[in-house]
Design a protein that fits this description.
The protein is mainly alpha-helical. Helices cover 45% and strands 0% of the residues. The protein has a domain at 31-63. The N and C termini lie far apart (68 Å).
Amino acid sequence: MAEKPAKPARRRTRVTKPKVVAMPGSHEPTHAEISERAYFIALEQGNADELGNWLRAERELAAA
């Protein structure tokens, strides 16, 4: 069986993410803020939908 020739080395390219500029007066909610709000949503509704509560808390805090 003949050996295959080595592939030429590929150059790695760096992909940069665009920087997100926050609107003045707004901030991204922290993990702790979302966690606390999701906890209180669970207490209010009495349900165990942790992901649903987390997503609702994120939406509410992002809109505030």
